[in-house]
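Lab channel / #folding
Pinned by the channel admin:
"Please post every new chain as: sequence first, then the C-alpha coordinates as a reply. Keep commentary short and put observations after the output so the thread stays searchable."

First post following the new format, from NK:
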Amino acid sequence: MTIVINSLEHISSMIRSSRKSMGLSQKRLAKMCGMSQSSIARMETDIDRLNPSYISVFCVVVALNKLELTSSKALVGRRVQEIMHRRIISVKPSASILDAIEIFKDYDFPQLPVIDEVHHVIGTVYQKDLLDIAMRNPEAVRRRSVSSIMKASLPQVDKNSSIQELRPILESIGAAMVMHEGKAVGIITIYDILKTV
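Reply from TO:
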Protein backbone atom coordinates (compact mmCIF):
# COMPACT_ATOMS: atom_id res chain seq x y z
CA MET A 1 0.00 0.00 0.00
CA THR A 2 1.74 3.19 -1.14
CA ILE A 3 0.86 6.17 1.01
CA VAL A 4 -0.21 9.29 -0.82
CA ILE A 5 -0.72 12.44 1.22
CA ASN A 6 -4.18 13.83 0.55
CA SER A 7 -5.10 15.63 3.75
CA LEU A 8 -3.95 15.80 7.37
CA GLU A 9 -7.16 14.17 8.59
CA HIS A 10 -6.42 10.94 6.68
CA ILE A 11 -2.66 10.73 7.08
CA SER A 12 -2.84 9.51 10.68
CA SER A 13 -4.82 6.35 9.90
CA MET A 14 -2.82 5.73 6.72
CA ILE A 15 0.48 5.82 8.61
CA ARG A 16 -0.87 3.54 11.32
CA SER A 17 -2.37 0.97 8.94
CA SER A 18 0.70 0.91 6.68
CA ARG A 19 3.05 0.52 9.66
CA LYS A 20 0.95 -2.28 11.17
CA SER A 21 0.54 -4.14 7.88
CA MET A 22 4.32 -4.38 7.68
CA GLY A 23 4.63 -5.43 11.33
CA LEU A 24 6.79 -2.39 12.02
CA SER A 25 6.94 -1.06 15.59
CA GLN A 26 6.56 2.63 16.33
CA LYS A 27 10.03 2.49 17.88
CA ARG A 28 11.65 1.18 14.70
CA LEU A 29 9.80 3.66 12.48
CA ALA A 30 10.85 6.50 14.79
CA LYS A 31 14.49 5.39 14.58
CA MET A 32 14.33 5.27 10.77
CA CYS A 33 13.03 8.86 10.73
CA GLY A 34 15.22 10.27 13.50
CA MET A 35 12.17 11.00 15.64
CA SER A 36 10.95 9.96 19.08
CA GLN A 37 8.56 7.05 19.49
CA SER A 38 6.07 9.35 21.21
CA SER A 39 6.03 11.59 18.11
CA ILE A 40 5.10 8.62 15.93
CA ALA A 41 2.43 7.55 18.45
CA ARG A 42 0.91 11.03 18.48
CA MET A 43 1.15 11.27 14.70
CA GLU A 44 -0.97 8.11 14.51
CA THR A 45 -3.55 9.08 17.12
CA ASP A 46 -3.61 12.84 17.66
CA ILE A 47 -2.05 14.43 14.61
CA ASP A 48 -4.19 17.58 14.80
CA ARG A 49 -2.91 18.49 18.26
CA LEU A 50 0.64 17.45 17.43
CA ASN A 51 0.58 19.66 14.33
CA PRO A 52 3.74 18.12 12.85
CA SER A 53 5.79 19.89 10.24
CA TYR A 54 5.42 18.89 6.62
CA ILE A 55 9.00 17.59 6.71
CA SER A 56 8.20 15.23 9.64
CA VAL A 57 5.14 13.77 7.94
CA PHE A 58 6.98 13.51 4.63
CA CYS A 59 9.87 11.65 6.30
CA VAL A 60 7.51 9.07 7.82
CA VAL A 61 5.61 8.54 4.57
CA VAL A 62 8.81 8.19 2.52
CA ALA A 63 10.26 5.71 5.05
CA LEU A 64 7.12 3.54 4.93
CA ASN A 65 6.90 3.62 1.13
CA LYS A 66 10.61 2.83 0.76
CA LEU A 67 10.41 -0.05 3.24
CA GLU A 68 7.43 -1.58 1.44
CA LEU A 69 9.08 -1.26 -1.98
CA THR A 70 12.39 -2.71 -0.76
CA SER A 71 10.60 -5.54 1.01
CA SER A 72 8.59 -6.44 -2.09
CA LYS A 73 11.69 -6.54 -4.33
CA ALA A 74 13.70 -8.57 -1.81
CA LEU A 75 10.97 -11.20 -1.54
CA VAL A 76 10.12 -11.80 -5.20
CA GLY A 77 10.53 -15.49 -5.99
CA ARG A 78 11.51 -16.49 -2.45
CA ARG A 79 9.97 -19.46 -0.64
CA VAL A 80 8.69 -19.69 2.92
CA GLN A 81 11.28 -22.30 3.89
CA GLU A 82 14.10 -19.86 3.04
CA ILE A 83 13.25 -17.40 5.81
CA MET A 84 11.14 -19.35 8.31
CA HIS A 85 12.25 -20.12 11.87
CA ARG A 86 13.08 -23.82 12.03
CA ARG A 87 13.05 -23.83 15.81
CA ILE A 88 9.43 -23.67 16.89
CA ILE A 89 8.80 -22.39 20.41
CA SER A 90 5.58 -24.14 21.37
CA VAL A 91 3.64 -25.61 24.25
CA LYS A 92 2.05 -29.04 24.67
CA PRO A 93 -1.74 -29.26 25.16
CA SER A 94 -1.26 -30.98 28.53
CA ALA A 95 0.99 -28.21 29.90
CA SER A 96 -0.42 -25.96 32.60
CA ILE A 97 -1.35 -22.37 31.86
CA LEU A 98 1.49 -21.41 34.20
CA ASP A 99 3.95 -23.26 31.93
CA ALA A 100 2.66 -21.25 28.96
CA ILE A 101 3.01 -18.00 30.93
CA GLU A 102 6.65 -18.84 31.66
CA ILE A 103 7.33 -19.33 27.95
CA PHE A 104 5.66 -16.02 27.15
CA LYS A 105 7.81 -14.31 29.78
CA ASP A 106 10.96 -15.75 28.20
CA TYR A 107 10.11 -14.95 24.58
CA ASP A 108 7.40 -12.25 24.60
CA PHE A 109 5.57 -13.64 21.56
CA PRO A 110 1.96 -12.50 21.03
CA GLN A 111 0.90 -16.11 20.41
CA LEU A 112 2.25 -19.59 21.00
CA PRO A 113 1.44 -22.67 18.91
CA VAL A 114 0.11 -25.74 20.70
CA ILE A 115 1.82 -28.81 19.22
CA ASP A 116 1.42 -32.43 20.29
CA GLU A 117 4.12 -35.09 20.64
CA VAL A 118 4.01 -36.05 16.94
CA HIS A 119 4.40 -32.45 15.69
CA HIS A 120 0.75 -31.91 14.77
CA VAL A 121 -0.42 -28.33 15.29
CA ILE A 122 -3.64 -28.47 17.29
CA GLY A 123 -4.19 -24.91 18.47
CA THR A 124 -2.85 -21.54 19.56
CA VAL A 125 -2.58 -19.81 22.93
CA TYR A 126 -2.61 -16.01 22.94
CA GLN A 127 -0.76 -13.86 25.45
CA LYS A 128 -3.79 -11.60 25.95
CA ASP A 129 -5.97 -14.60 26.90
CA LEU A 130 -3.45 -15.72 29.52
CA LEU A 131 -3.37 -12.22 30.97
CA ASP A 132 -7.15 -12.25 31.21
CA ILE A 133 -7.17 -15.57 33.08
CA ALA A 134 -4.32 -14.52 35.39
CA MET A 135 -6.19 -11.32 36.29
CA ARG A 136 -9.63 -12.89 36.77
CA ASN A 137 -8.70 -16.23 38.34
CA PRO A 138 -5.04 -16.56 39.40
CA GLU A 139 -5.60 -20.05 40.84
CA ALA A 140 -6.63 -21.33 37.41
CA VAL A 141 -3.13 -20.85 35.98
CA ARG A 142 -1.91 -23.86 37.96
CA ARG A 143 -5.04 -26.01 37.72
CA ARG A 144 -6.01 -25.69 34.08
CA SER A 145 -4.22 -27.05 31.06
CA VAL A 146 -3.39 -25.20 27.88
CA SER A 147 -5.88 -27.37 25.97
CA SER A 148 -8.73 -25.81 27.98
CA ILE A 149 -8.00 -22.29 26.72
CA MET A 150 -6.38 -22.75 23.32
CA LYS A 151 -8.00 -21.39 20.21
CA ALA A 152 -7.81 -22.47 16.57
CA SER A 153 -4.35 -23.08 15.19
CA LEU A 154 -2.47 -20.43 13.26
CA PRO A 155 -2.90 -20.61 9.48
CA GLN A 156 -0.79 -23.35 7.93
CA VAL A 157 1.27 -23.01 4.76
CA ASP A 158 3.43 -25.45 2.85
CA LYS A 159 7.17 -24.86 3.15
CA ASN A 160 7.37 -24.39 -0.64
CA SER A 161 4.77 -21.60 -0.72
CA SER A 162 5.96 -18.27 -2.07
CA ILE A 163 6.36 -15.33 0.30
CA GLN A 164 3.99 -13.31 -1.89
CA GLU A 165 1.22 -15.90 -1.32
CA LEU A 166 1.75 -15.55 2.42
CA ARG A 167 1.35 -11.79 2.60
CA PRO A 168 -2.44 -11.65 3.22
CA ILE A 169 -2.08 -14.12 6.11
CA LEU A 170 0.71 -12.14 7.75
CA GLU A 171 -1.16 -8.87 7.32
CA SER A 172 -4.23 -10.24 9.11
CA ILE A 173 -2.81 -12.77 11.61
CA GLY A 174 0.89 -11.92 11.93
CA ALA A 175 2.22 -15.51 11.83
CA ALA A 176 1.74 -18.87 10.13
CA MET A 177 2.84 -22.43 10.78
CA VAL A 178 5.04 -23.94 8.07
CA MET A 179 4.12 -27.52 7.26
CA HIS A 180 5.61 -30.46 5.39
CA GLU A 181 3.77 -33.76 5.03
CA GLY A 182 1.28 -32.80 7.74
CA LYS A 183 3.88 -31.89 10.37
CA ALA A 184 5.11 -28.54 11.62
CA VAL A 185 8.63 -27.80 10.37
CA GLY A 186 8.80 -24.09 11.12
CA ILE A 187 7.00 -20.85 11.84
CA ILE A 188 7.07 -17.58 9.93
CA THR A 189 6.12 -14.13 11.21
CA ILE A 190 6.02 -10.55 9.98
CA TYR A 191 9.39 -10.04 11.68
CA ASP A 192 11.01 -12.72 9.52
CA ILE A 193 9.89 -10.76 6.46
CA LEU A 194 11.25 -7.50 7.86
CA LYS A 195 14.63 -9.09 8.56
CA THR A 196 15.09 -9.66 4.84
CA VAL A 197 14.86 -5.93 4.13
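NK: The chain has two domains: 8-75, 80-194.
TO: also worth noting, Residues 1-5 have pLDDT under 50 and may be disordered.
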